[in-house]
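Handout, section B. The chain below has 358 residues.
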Amino acid sequence: MKVAFTIAILATAMMLTMAIDPTPQKIPIPEFQVDLDVDPAHRWDDIVEKFYDYNKELVFTQMNHVIPSLANLASKWINPWALDHLGDFGAEIKGLARKIKEVWPNTVVNESSLMMLNFLYALDAGCTSTVAQTKDSGVLHGRNMDFGFTTGLRLLSINVTFTKSGKPLYKGTTFLGYTGLITGMRYGGFSISLNARHADDSLAGNVARIALGYKPPTWLARETLETVDNYDGAHKMMADTKIASSIYMIMSGPEDGQGTVLTRKPSGLVDDWPLDMTKNDWFRLETNYDHWNPPPSYDDRRTLGYKHMEEIGQDKLTKQTFLDDLFSQAPTMRPWTVYTVIMSVRKSTYDGYIWWYY
């Protein structure tokens, strides 16, 4: 009932979103589970059914708004047979396409368009992620997820707890139809958020690298959360694995000082920028630009973000001040911010909110 109520309230609110109010409101991201012991082709069936049961055609109509342009791209770059060579991820995408078509025959969603959806994050997103050492509660890790198709993605946002042998293994925030993870936390191990890096990547180049065995960063993030149980191991896997597109990987762990920003190119690591308490560098804030270069004047979220963190101060840093005084403040918060997540690996807490406007 709690999930039904949350989704219903979100759906009603978004139907009323016709004008932008300067004060966004937040509601908890709906919670679901995926059982990793289930056949990959059926892991997402329950979530698809619940979305349709609670919202009827509203959410799937939003998918139809997002998907046609993806379908056009997919027809140029994606062959559905490729899903047969992508392991569990390919099987999950095929299962999602089948189930969405089953519950809503009028959908334009198909295997190719869902596959394209899973490739697009690195090209179009603009986000802020921060890791920060508190005085006595370990490292906090927060992120704002900014993207186009904002209304649709707010409706499609979900928190998913992935279980194994009946026990929670890791948790992540994603969108219905998106099998990778942009944000996630391995219980007791580490947390990850991905920020797009505006390098010289292209969709064609990303797809070509995937064909050569490079991993989409969002799939690497989920694979790491699923197979590695500690911060150092996750750091190595995220830093060393060949990926399809340039990206920033922001990470934290359960111990003091375990937090960093990895700057990646497809072939390897460009830069590792960890917390450094010996220099009182107690936080790292990453948007979508290399930290050693000044951000462009038209998108300088960094300067005010730093100012807000310094105004909070390490002594007063809590989950609440992190949320209220950084992630809820402009320009870190923007009209196209879809959600905010605040994670603490040490405390095993994971708080996520969708932003919408009256």
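Note. DSSP finds twelve helices and 14 strands in the chain. Compare this with the example in section A.
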